[in-house]
Design brief:
It is a single chain. By secondary structure, this protein is an alpha+beta fold. The longest helix is centred in the middle third of the chain and has 20 residues. About 45% of the residues are buried.
Length: about 300
């Protein structure tokens, strides 16, 4: 995967991501119909807390996918934590420790991330690729998940070693995002995570995620996290409220598109359609707009 920051008079600054399709990619994109379903799923995921691409193209001869999104001058959530600019050199801007966000910021951004992840899950896609580097800051109190198409392309989540074997891997991915917002740094281990001093309400959520029994007859889920007061009490802008949840028809249509991409029954279970891959690491840790070097 390579990221480039480009600009033109027509589109303005754009972040262009080029994916090389992996041998175990579950999407048979050489079929025009399946390629169309993939493009429709990714670009039609309309939600206030998702950042869909403006353009998506598949180059059959080179077996590559090009995805472009508007460049955000505020950068990523990781940039916010590290007080860096999105165009700072990737090799330098995250060297210094980050700064923990305030409790109100964590609650607001945490709810928005959860809402975006839950929307994708409702549409049939587990968002296990989420990390602070691909959560983009739209405004100071508004973020959106980017690069969610990676979950469809067999690219290994950055946090895969910490997610494998978990009953609800997307919950653990969110837990690591929450940890980084609350402490300014990344958790080093998957379980028995040492939780430094942080607001009690945040600490309770982290403990509920990282210290739950395994196996757990009632594991923590995105839905249960959203119901916690720290997140459920966060107000949602009026203009965002009507876009939060897809209607049943919309969700069914999105599930069918995803299922058609991989040749599965749309009611066959989203975890069976999109399991956690075991190869092809995505090692990017910063904003997708950082540099033109491999990530």
């Amino acid at each position: 995967k390579n990221n480039f920051l480009v600009s033109s008079k027509r589109t303005g600054p754009q972040v262009v991501t080029i994916y090389s399709l992996l041998p175990d990619c579950p999407l048979p994109l050489k079929s025009k119909s399946k390629c169309g379903h993939f493009r429709s799923f990714v670009t039609d995921a309309k939600h206030p807390f998702l950042l869909p691409p403006g353009e998506l193209a598949y180059f059959r001869r080179k077996n590559k996918i090009l995805v472009s999104r508007d460049f955000g001058s505020r950068g990523s959530l990781k940039d916010l934590i590290h007080r860096s600019a999105p165009t700072d050199p990737h090799t330098e801007k995250y060297r210094s420790p980050g700064v923990a966000l305030k409790e109100a910021e964590i609650a607001t951004l945490g709810r928005q991330i959860l809402e975006g992840m839950q929307y994708l899950k409702t549409c049939g896609l587990r968002c296990t690729h989420v990390h602070t580097g691909n959560v983009m800051m739209i405004e100071s109190d508004w973020c959106a998940i980017s690069e969610y198409e990676q979950s469809m392309l067999a690219y290994r989540p950055q946090l895969l070693p910490l997610l494998q074997g978990k009953q609800e891997p997307e919950v653990w991915a969110f837990g690591h995002v929450l940890f980084e917002m609350a402490t300014g740094g990344q958790a080093a281990t998957a379980s028995n995570v040492f939780i430094p001093p942080c607001p009690l309400s945040i600490e309770e959520v982290l403990r509920a995620i990282f210290y739950q029994a395994t196996p757990n007859p009632r594991p923590m889920t995105l839905e249960r996290l959203l119901a916690l007061p720290i997140f459920s009490n966060v107000p949602i802008r009026r203009e965002h409220q009507k876009l939060l949840w897809p209607g049943q028809d919309k969700a069914r249509k999105m599930k069918k598109r995803l299922a058609h991409c991989v040749g599965k029954n749309p009611d066959g279970g989203l975890s069976k359609c999109m399991p956690l891959p075991a190869v092809a690491a995505d090692t990017s840790t910063g904003t997708a707009a950082a540099t033109a070097s491999p990530t």
